[in-house]
Structures are given as C-alpha cells and as structure tokens.
Amino acid sequence: xxxxxxAPVVAVTPTREVRTVEPVNEVAVDGRRGATLVGEAHGxxxxxxxxxxxxxxxASLSCDTQESNVVLAGNRFAxxxxxxxxYVVTGTIRPLHGRVALRATGGAQVALAGQGSLVAGSxxxxxWRFDARARKKVHTYGKPAxxxxxxxxxxxxxxxxxxxxxxxxAGSRIxxxxxxxxxxxxxxxxxxxxxxxxxxxxxxxxxxPQLTRTVAADAHLEDLDGGLALYSVETQLHLLRLSDxxxxxxxxxxxxxxxxxxxxxxxxxxxxxxxxxRLGHAGFLxxxxxxxxxxx
Length: 296
Fold this sequence. Notes:
Blueprint: E1 9-11, E2 16-20, E3 28-30, E4 33-40, E5 43-51, E6 54-60, E7 65-66, E8 71-73, E9 76-82, E10 86-92, E11 97-104, E12 110-115, E13 118-123, E14 126-130, E15 135-140, E16 146-151, E17 154-160, E18 163-168, E19 173-178, E20 185-188, E21 191-196, E22 199-203, E23 209-214, E24 220-225, E25 228-233, E26 236-241, E27 247-251, E28 256-264, E29 267-273, E30 280-285, H1 287-293
Parallel strand pairs: 1-27
Antiparallel strand pairs: 2-30, 3-4, 4-5, 5-6, 7-9, 8-9, 9-10, 10-11, 12-13, 13-14, 14-15, 16-17, 17-18, 18-19, 20-21, 21-22, 22-23, 24-25, 25-26, 26-27, 28-29, 29-30
C-alpha cells in the first residue's frame, strides 16, 4: 500500500501584521479589509479592523461576552453579543456606530454572514436580513438551519448533513444541492465547494461538480477564492491550488492554538495567537506573497 505524502510546510512572512497584547479570534473579510475580536473568550474588548496598510479602526465593545461571529460587509459590521440573551449587533465602520438589531433567546443557535451591502443571519429555523435601519425575516424552515455564507447577494444555508440550499437576499430558493459536507461548505464567486472526508468538490451554483481534489484527513473547508482553496486540519492551515492539487501547510511564526484565515482577491488575511508576550497576530499577505507559498 502506498501512503499519501504529507503536504510540505512553508513559512509565512506577512506583508503587514498588527500585534495585540490580548488574544484575537476568527477572521471576517470583505474586499480589502479584515476584522477580528480582541480580548478574552468570555469578554472580548474591541473589534479590530485592518487593511494591507494597517489598522483601520479599533471599536470598543460593551457586552459581558462577545461571541466569535464577527462579520464585515463593505462599510458595515455585525457580531453576536451574549449577555442574558443573544443580541445581534450591527453598525458602520465609518462613521463608527453600532446598535442592537435583534434580540434572540439565550438558547438559540445564531450564525451571521455578510458581503458587500448584505448582512444576514440564521436564528433557529429563521433566516434574517439585517439592513442599515431595519431587519426582515426572509425565510423560515421547518427545523433549525445554519447560514454559512453570503456571496453576491445569495445566501448559502446548511439544511442538514446532506443538503445545502441557496437563497436570494429576499429569501427565494435558487437551488437545492444534495451533497454531503461534513467537512464544510463555501459559496464564493458563484461556485459551491464542499469537503466530505478527504474529497474536496468544487462545482456550479446548482451543485454540478467541476473538479475534485484530495485533501488531508479531517479537513475542514475555510474558504475558496479564484484558483485557491483554504482548509484547516485541527490547528494547521492548508493552502491548496485547485489547478494541480498542490497543497502546503502554512507555518505561522510562534503560533499557539488555532489559526483563522480568509482569502480575498488572491490575498490572505489571518489571525492567530502565541503563548506569551504580545499574544495576538492579525496579518495580511499580498497576492504575490500567497503565490510564492505555492512555488516549486
């Protein structure tokens, strides 16, 4: 039996990096900006938004506990605040302003996503759209569903382990895709990607496969952008080139615990923590730097 060779490890040299005294959380990206929460898991202190040039804004937060679900959508942001209940907070970066857009019960499962001008969320079986000054319930399922992605005014919803649906921003159903996706699903640029076991499938919006690639065991899909896919295996991030299946593991300097990253127009935004000192790293790699990781 021939065993698959492990992916080579490549060192990541950031094009730009912001360091924080306290830990950072997962990454949201829209265009040329990334965002993360900074603080502690049971008391995030502020929202950090950065660009390839450095810090854009540091917005203080006023919740007892900030969940990780931060979203960027153009000039708008959203996150989930938990105190006595789940509060969906939305606002603008410039001018910096935020408000509670919806209050849900503490036991509700909430997921937020956004892109461009669209911020949306799933709360139990309901799919909501959060406009600048109003909110609207656009679709209701018979049982809880999870909003996974917003892409070009379309919503990707996880119905169950074998079914995905694509909705318009008004809640109309565009497509139902029967495809197992226990390793995650992403809708990006009108293409649908899923991981099931060690199989990455990228296809059309309505689910027709266009290519299949082999990934490492226990992979979870993080993002898709142009000819690149990003996935994680526990604390490791993998970058995969779709054209030939070249796969590398990203070595982030002094990484401790999980790393989060998203792709954007060929570039990459990331956030991770180290064990001591200035704990948080929030960084950016240009498209040229990303390409260099797959060289050779």
